[in-house]
Amino acid sequence: MASPDGERDPSSGKAPLSSGSVPEPPDTAPAGGATVAAWLRDSTIGLLYGALLFGGPISVAHVVHNRVESPATAFASLILFFLLYGCGVGAVLGALGLLLRRLAFRRFRRTGDPVVAAACLLNLAVFQAVVFHGLTYEQVPWFEPRTFADMALFLVAAALVVGAFVWSATRIAAAGVRRLADAGGLRRSLAAVAVVLAAAHAVLPIAFRLLAEEKPAPFDPARLVANPGPPVALLGFDGLDPDLLLEMVERGRLPNLSAFVREGTLGRLETFSGANSAVIWASLYTGESPDRHQVHDFYRVRFPGSGPGLFPVHRTCFKELIDLLAWAPGISRRFVNRLDLVSPPIWEIADRAGLATVVVDGYFYSFPAQPQLDPQSRLLGYGLNDALTDRRSGGAPMEWFAQPAELPAEVEAAAAGQPDLAWQSRAAAALLEDRARRGQGPPHFFNLYAHEPDTVSHQRWRWAEPERFPFVSSAGVAEHGGAVAEVYRRIDALIGELRHVLGPETIFVIASDHGQSPTFVHRLHTQHRHGPDGVLLLHGPGVRRGHRLEGSHVLDVFPTVLALLGLPLPADAAGEVLDEAFEAPPGAGSGSRVPTWRGAWQPVDQVGGADVERTRQEIERLKAMGYL
């Protein structure tokens, strides 16, 4: 028994339990009821930790990334991210805490609970992934690894350093939180964090609305008159790598491209870091940087209250979490398309200026297909091979993918059921042959886009450079080692065919949005988030022979093509005409300019802004490529 003054009761031989003391935990695992209570406590701490320290800041990042102008959308985002990251982290910490209590309860007898160690493990996994996931050979600081062994050594050393820092920082933060809790200030601190996050979601949208660009003055398309020079062909090849291209040219394996390099101007095309193909091609086709055209990914995530939806911020786990919740009502994804572009792409400007235009697969931005004003213009939109298959089974209307919707039978036969580069090549040839039969000659502007170089590079590069990857068998090299080079040879053959059909008067502008960098810390074998240079190759009348261009950027393609077509340049252009690539600077509409192309005309929404089946097809396509 304890005496009233707290002294030891000599008759009992036991120390008293004062109001502030904690019983010493036994040397056995906690009982079932205590285990459940501890699990609930760990999960609750994890929920608050995930919601406020992960969900809140990540929600702010998405509001800033998307320049959200609606406070209602911002708060809907905050609620979604609180739930996503709060429940996710709560489940993880609860499970880890339960496991640690069962396996190492003695270790946590004095510290009270294993939630701190669980938080350390969680942060370690998260921050290691953020730092190293997708790291390429080109991104390694201080030295240039050449082989897998070099890269693995760097990763091990760097992981130890990052791990020690993350573990120590988490322990220090946990100690601070414990002091706050002991002092009774934890609730006040959490409330303060919540207030700051709520204020950010209220103030940022208002600031973005106040800072929004003024709407451009109405644009009169009737003023759009071209002063055309020679025909122009813009050939876009996604992920075409300048180093591999030059290597194959020097070895004589690309005869048509070798002639273009010898007779034209070649340059490395600088691109955007932290962007993917959907973002860069939007810039290349409109001449606007991502912060202006506001396309930040392949798709938007839509949820109740989100309006048009949010583009996910890279490496926040948002994509993976939404993928798990795709079944939930009210949550969906919509892929970007022509409706997302504030400014019109090159081919629409050319068509409205009265130039005969042929477009074959202008990436996402040719869908839904916009009506062509020039009677000789033709457009075959992104994913036409799928559309033809659907059409024959009573599916998608052709006007979503083609303008005019009634295609010649030869074009349908050429495009149906073929892989990307194959159908694009055959469909382009069939369209140009149809023009020749009609006595129309080559179009004044020809645009072709092919995704296959990027797809094959991501999937097969490890066998092209086996010394940079682990566990590469000789059988795999024999089977897949030439896959990437084979795509380059097919591109070379296509360029030879187009050169023959379009004739010697055509100026070719060959561009890629980025190059490739090998990596083995990603499910894709190459990455380009850090923006490795793409390719720019110009060939034709007036192009300097054997010239090497320095300092060109993807934003320069748009004004250069406009100048070659004799179309007015926008006064707000972010890029420049690449005069250095030509013997004489190309004229741009007799020097005329327009204030801007932004909002020049509104695209026609034929599909209500979304197409469920189309989205499903694109999700499956990107999953097959490894992007999702």
Description:
This protein is of the alpha/beta class. The protein has helices spanning 32-65, 71-104, 115-132, 148-182, 186-211, 242-250, 255-263, 277-286, 290-293, 318-324, 346-352, 384-392, 409-415, 420-437, 452-464, 474-480, 483-502, 557-564, 612-625, and strands at residues 232-237, 265-270, 299-302, 332-335, 357-360, 378-380, 402-403, 445-450, 507-511, 517-518, 526-527, 534-539, 547-553, 569-570, 593-594. The strands form 4 sheets. The chain has a 9-stranded mixed beta sheet with strand order 7-6-5-8-1-9-12-2-13. Strands 3-4 form a two-stranded antiparallel sheet. The chain has a two-stranded antiparallel ribbon with strand order 10-11. Helix 2 (71-104) crosses helix 3, helix 14 (420-437) runs parallel beside helix 17 and helix 15 packs antiparallel against helix 17.
Q: What is the CATH superfamily classification of the largest domain?
A: Alkaline Phosphatase, subunit A
CATH topology of the largest domain: Alkaline Phosphatase, subunit A
CATH class of the largest domain, anyone?
Alpha Beta
**Strand-pairing-aware structural class:** alpha/beta
Number of helices: 19
Number of domains: 2
Largest sheet: 9 strands, mixed
Task: Count every beta strand, where a strand is a DSSP E run of 2 or more residues.
Answer: 15
Question: What are the defining features of this structure?
Answer:
10% strand; 15 strands; two-stranded antiparallel sheet; single chain; alpha/beta; 2 domains; disordered N terminus; Alkaline Phosphatase, subunit A; 628 residues
